[in-house]
Structures are given as structure tokens and as C-alpha cells.
Amino acid sequence: MDDWGDLLAAANSGDGRAYAHFLRTVTPVLRGVVRARGAGLGEAGCEDVLQEVLLAVHLKRHTWQTGTPVRPWLYAIARYKVVDAFRVRGRGVNLPIEDFLDDLACDPGPDPTEAADMAKMIGMLDGRSAKIVQMIGLEGASTAETGHALKMTEGAVRVALHRAFKSLATLRERHVK
Amino acid sequence: MKTEDLIRALAADTQIERPIARMLAVRLGLAIVLAVALIGVTLGFRDDLMLSLVMPVSALRFVLTAALGLVGVRLALVLARPEGRAQARLWPIAAVAAVALGVLIWAYAATPPEARQMAVMGKTMVACLVTIPLLSILPVTALLVSIRQGATTAPALAGFVAGAAGSGFAAMVYAMHCTEDSPLFYVTWYGIAITGVTLVSTLIGARVLRW
Question: Is B3 inside any structural domain?
């Protein structure tokens, strides 16, 4: 059992702070995995894939068995999502080399932690769900504050937030096909 | 959206899905009970059902099909986890198939040559080939739905396992009606029905178990 296991076990029993800590701890490692395997996608493309991996980890965290090593589980999800991202973006990756030289020549480009796909998909959610994800994610509001602003109970905000993430995963699948 | 923003939003979502094993047990249990009820109401149980459970050659139908169902369910639960692909061992399914084949060969040798063809063809081949796939729909669906709630990284293989397990249980339920006790009949025709369902389930799994 390692630190990751303790954090994820706490997260899965409802400890939001342990969960945030877990996600922040594994994100740089996952970013490394995605970049090592997905070099051809570019930095922003890799960040898109990383965010897909994080969403998958989030929605599938109940498939981790408490007490078993976290790494094989986590890497299996990352590998599956990276391969999937390549399958989907296969044609897009096949850019002529000049484009890359252009990229290298011009300014550093977008913030490497900024990705476009997730924002696009959040835009496809219904208005209220999108607002909830944005308030909590971008503005750092708590579920209680969000509920207050949208005239919803905190419980309803939590349910809507969970549904929003499930919809995002479904949207992505449909988007891809 | 920045990754840090996404993490903040994800961490606020404390709802977690229920464990797959429990959901699968409930669904599969219901599917099998329903299948038993359907057989009881439509085709009816064989009159000597209790006796057939203690006659070795006849009871073997229940043992083999239940064994296939159980090893399949175990494998399905392994394959429902992302890292399960590396841990899944298919030999228990092969072992059940090998035992069934062994029984078939033994029965072939033990049956007088002039009686073999009649024993293989039986009287209810069509009913068997139709009913087992129909009865499989419920348990195979229960397995596929549950694996889909998991996160398999081997969709086709998981579909294969779901098909083998689900049709194994379906054949077990059908055996409560079926009176053909010769292994020449049941290994052959149950086997063909199970193989067919498993192939279809493999194809379905490859499509619906992606995430």
C-alpha cells in the first residue's frame, strides 16, 4: 500500500480533500505518460488527452479495489485513453513536418495546461450544468455557493455535477464517432 | 479549460458508483430467477427433475453449465477492471470445455455404434438451439451492462466471457426442462448453442464495452 492508495481509498469513501490531493499528485505523472506516448499530438493536444484521462479516472474510480496497487490500475486507464485518443485523432496527427517547424519557430503557444476540448464539450451541456461546472471549476465556488447562486439545494448541485461529468464522457464518445 | 480547474470541479463531485460485483450479483440473480420462471411457465420442468439431479450423467449437464457460468462470472469481474486484462486467465473456460469434450468422447465410446446417431440427433434439437439463445438474452445482458459500468480495456474479450457465462447459465436453466440425458446430445447441441451466443456476445462487446 502506498500514499496513492491511502489517498484514493479516502477519496472513494467520500473525502473530497483527499481526492483533490490525489488528482493533483497523479496529474504530473499522467501528463508525463501522455506526453511520452503522444508526442505527435503537441502540448495542447496532450493536455486534451490528459483531461480525458482525468475524467475517465474520475468516472471509473469505483473500479479500483481498495488495498490493491494504484499504479497498474491508473496506468491501464491512461494507456487505454491515449490509444483511443490516437485512434480518434489518427489523421490529425499526420501533419506535414513544416507545420511543426512553424510551431517551434513562433511564440511559446498556449499555456500548456490549457486545453480546448473540455471547454468545447462543457459548452454542449445544458446551460445549468455548464454553469455549475464552470462556477466550481473556473471560479472555485463551493457546491453550497453554487447552489445559492442558482437557487438550488446543495444536494441538487452535487447530483447535477455528477450527471454533468457523465454527460461529458458520453458527449465525448459521440463527438468522436 | 485549465487542468487545475477541471481537477477542482472533479474533486467537488463526491458521488461514486456502486461496486460492480454487487450490482452484477443482483442483476444476474434476477436474470436467472426470471429465466427459471419463464421455463417453468412456458415449456415446463421435466417430470423427473429431482431424479435428474442425482443421476450422474444427467446431473453433469447442470454441473458443466453451472461451472461455465461461474468461471465466466469470475473472469468478467476481473475484466471489468482496467488492469484486469493483464490478470485475466482464460484456462478455466478452456478446462470446462475440455471436460465436456472428454465426456462426449467417453459417451461416444460407451454408446453402441448403431445407437450413436439417434443419441446425437435426439428429439428436441431445434427446441434446444432456439431456447438456449433466447434464455441467454437476460443473463448476457446483465453481464454486459455490469461490465459496461466497470472499465474494461479488453472489450471483445469481456464480451466473449459475458457470452460464455450468460449462455452457460441459460443452458443450465434449459436443462431443467430438457430430458435428453445423453452427452452425445447435450454436449453437442448445448455446446453449439453456447458457442453461437458467445460469438455474438463477443461482437457486441467489442462495440458496446468501449468507454
Answer: no
pLDDT at position A171 is 86
Q: How many domains are there within chain B?
A: 1
Residues 6+ apart with CB under 8 A from B37: none
Kindly report the CATH number that applies to the domain delimited by A116-177. 1.10.10.10
Distances, alpha carbon A80 to alpha carbons A50, B51, B89, B146, B147, in Å: 12, 51, 20, 19, 16
Q: Which residue from A77, A79, A143 is facing B12, i.e. has the nearest CB?
A: A143
Tell me the pTM.
0.89
What is the pLDDT at residue A129? 92
The answer to whether residues B167 and B198 touch, using CB atoms and an 8 Å cutoff, is yes
Domain containing B171 equals 19-208
Cβ of B12 and A161 within 8 Å?
yes
Contact A63 B4 (CB under 8 A): no
Q: Does the A1-111 domain belong in CATH 1.10.1740.10?
A: yes
Residue B11 lies in a domain: no
Q: Would you say residue B121 has pLDDT above 90?
A: yes
The rounded mean pLDDT for chain B is 95
User: Which residue type is seen at B6?
Assistant: L
Prediction ipTM score:
0.88
Mean pLDDT score, B105-113? 94
- DSSP secondary-structure letter at A63? G
Question: What are the tens digits of pLDDT across the range A80-113?
Answer: 998 888 787 764 444 444 444 444 444 444 556 6
Closest Cα to residue B139, out of B18, B63, B26? B26
Asked if A27 and A96 count as a contact pair (C-beta separation under 8 A), the reply is no
Any alpha helices (H) in chain A, and if so which ranges?
Answer: 3-12, 16-37, 42-59, 70-93, 97-105, 117-124, 127-137, 143-150, 154-176
In chain A, pLDDT over 70 holds for what percent of residues?
83
CB-CB: which of B3, B5, B81 is closest to A63? B81
A107: phi then psi, degrees, rounded to nearest 5:
-60, 165
Q: Is residue B204 part of a domain?
A: yes
Contact yes or no for B151 and A56 at CB 8 A: yes
Average pLDDT over residues B73-97: 96
